[in-house]
Amino acid sequence: EVEVKNTGNTPQNVTFSIIDFDQSWYALNATNASLLSGKTAGFKITFSIGDVAVKDYTGQYYAIGTNKITKNFTLRVLPAPAKQLEINDTFALYKADAVNLEMEINKSRANGINVTLAEEKLKDLKSKIEQAENYIKAGDYFSAYQLFTDIKTLMDDTKSELAKAKAVVEAGKK
Fold first, then answer.
1. What's the first-to-final CA gap in the chain, in angstroms?
2. What burial class does residue 151 get, using C-beta atoms within 10 Å of its C-beta: 0-12 exposed, 13-18 middle, 19+ buried?
3. In 3-state terms, what secondary structure has residue 72?
């Protein structure tokens, strides 16, 4: 609930509104209030956004009376239970891929390939995976999900560095 107070000396009619959000995402209990000097009105906002991306959305609300007051706010969309299951599945795949990638790096190192750059990327990858795992264990699926782009990028970068290291060896054989 957003409270608006008339800090002036005269009664005011106040209009309340939200901008930067689709109007189908929210409902207001009221959009207008008449306020005597020193009195407060509450505007209750109920969000119902449906199936949208799990992320933070920024918006503004404003109250117009004698003055216009604008405030920024953030609406955080959390994963629904079905999305949490999807996050668990995706995380399990990332974790298994990282284990397989580490085994491939170890095998390449054992075969005399310089995999130093791949190992550095793998270290960063494992750190992000550990962070995501800790978030999931704490029930913070939002934060875990936010790490997935970084994990995917680090996974690709690690594979790329390993491929480059193997290519150097193959080029040397020719």
1. 71
2. buried
3. strand
Q: How far is Cα 64 from Cα 18, in angstroms, rounded to an integer?
A: 12
Q: Report which DSSP code applies to 80.
A: P
Give helix then strand counts, H and E, for the chain.
3, 8
Alpha-carbon distances of 141 from 47, 83, 92, 134, 155, rounded to whole Å:
20, 9, 14, 10, 20
CB 152 within 8 A of CB 164: no
Q: What is the crossing angle of helices 141-173 and 116-137, to 10°? A: 160
Distance, CA of 80 to CA of 72 (rounded, Å):
25
Q: Which residue type does 76 have? A: R
pLDDT tens for 102-135 read: 999 999 999 999 999 999 999 999 999 999 999 9
Beta bridge partners of 27: 46
pTM of the predicted protein model:
0.78
Task: Supply φ then ψ for residue 6, to 5 degrees.
Answer: -85, 105
Whole-angstrom distance, CA of residue 105 vs CA of residue 111? 10
d(CA 165, CA 159): 10
- Which residues make beta-bridge pairs with 59? 73
Helix-helix angle 81-110:116-137, to 10 degrees: 150
